[in-house]
Amino acid sequence: MFIKHYGRISMPNKVKQFLEQASLEKVYIGLKNNSISLKDFVDVVLSKQDCILFGPPGTSKTYYVDKLAEKLGDKVGLFQIIQFHANYSYDEFIDGIVPDIDKGGFKYETGVFYNFCQEAQNPQNKEKICVFVIDEINRANVTSVFGEVMNLIENKGVRIMKTAKQRKIFFVPDNVVIVGTMNTADKTLAKLDFALRRRFRFLPVYPSKYALHEMIAACGFDVDINISVDDYVDCFEILNSKIRRNNQLGKEMMIGHVLWTRRTNSLSLYTVRDIGSIFRESIFPQLESYCGANRDLLGNLVGTAIRDKLVYGYAISDDEILNYLSILKNSKAGENNVTSN
User: Fold this and answer.
1) For the chain: N or C, fewer Cβ within 10 A?
2) How far apart are CA 69 and CA 311, in angstroms?
């Protein structure tokens, strides 16, 4: 029944709530993500196979890299980390011409990976694994930056070539392992050069409900938060399931478990304010970035009420965020409600 007030038509609250939540259909979350474990990742490196950790933002790819040196222990010789960016070049990586600050003009200079490979041949490193980590490897034009390395890593320690500028003899020792990380929200695997894909093992690191549960349970929730830690993890699974199944987004755009946590190392209980901050400062901005100008897509993920506040720049209260989580929780479907496609 519609009620008329001062020439305007309003709706009963229940109808309004239904229309705001109508897009949050039942979602099944019983399937397990295909992610590599930290142990399996370490085993790949121990077998001296070049690899790339890939997955959406906030899935602990950097954590895996940080733990790698610790797990390798005395088996590791060198361990170096660099980060690629859009302007990264062969000159910086292998061999190039750089400004001569002392004498003026320009000079030849070998790059960071060339120098790493030379150090890996030193007696103290030769019998150990030397790990060269390239963070955000997909941000640069990899085939252009790698140059002859693309050929050399296919048969390490055997193939020998000369660098492009100084014509130095160069090979990649067989104890060197290249580990890359890539954010699939920036660039999908489908767009990577086939030559690169053939030379690396690609190891998926997707959002993990187990990792999130462990991180949140270590602190716990304040009594004012009207959902449990288990419910919060279910909400994480439900939202990511909606993203994964949407043909405009997909699994590469899921929200990593790290983004569902505080950005501090505090072990105090999570408060209502903490949960509100996580969504206002991390999750909602990420979803807005993914959806762009597609309001229907954003509305399908957060509901029309929160979508409109995001679009028009209105404040979203902690209570509204807790209510959104409650709606997500209630959209969880049981196994018996799922039909095969």
Assistant:
1) C
2) 44
- Whole-angstrom distance, CA of residue 228 vs CA of residue 216: 10
Q: What's the DSSP call for residue 256?
A: P
pTM of this structure: 0.84
* Cβ atoms 311, 303 nearer than 8 A: no
Question: Are the C-beta atoms of residues 174 and 48 closer than 8 Å to each other?
Answer: yes
Strand extents, DSSP E, the chain: 3-5, 8-10, 51-55, 76-83, 95-99, 106-110, 129-135, 161-162, 169-170, 176-183, 201-204
Which residues of the chain, if any, have pLDDT below 50?
1-11, 15, 18-19, 21-23, 334-341
Type of residue found at 297: L
User: What residue type is 333 in one-letter code?
Assistant: A
Q: How far is CA 87 from CA 90, 101, 190, 276, in A?
A: 10, 21, 22, 37
Are 64 and 38 spatial neighbours (Cβ–Cβ below 8 Å)?
A: yes
Residues recorded for the chain: 341
Cα 56 from Cα 205, distance rounded (Å): 8
- At 189-238, the pLDDT tens digits run 556 778 888 899 999 999 999 999 999 999 999 999 989 999 999 999 99
Helix (H) or strand (E) holding 117: helix 112-120
What contacts 194, CB < 8 A, 6 or more positions away? none
Cα atoms in the 13 Å half-sphere on the side-chain side of 22: 8
Distance between start and end Cα atoms, the chain: 38
- Measured between alpha carbons, how far is 165 from 233 in angstroms, rounded to an integer? 53
| Structure tokens, 28 | 């099944």
**Per-residue pLDDT reduced to its tens digit, 78-87:** 999 999 999 9
The β-bridge partners of 179 are 51, 133
Residue 77, helix vs strand vs coil: strand
- Residue 103, amino acid: K
Residue 108 exposed, middle or buried by CB count within 10 Å (0-12, 13-18, 19+): middle
Other beta carbons within 10 angstroms of residue 230's beta carbon come to 13
CB atoms under 10 Å from CB of 37, counted, come to 12
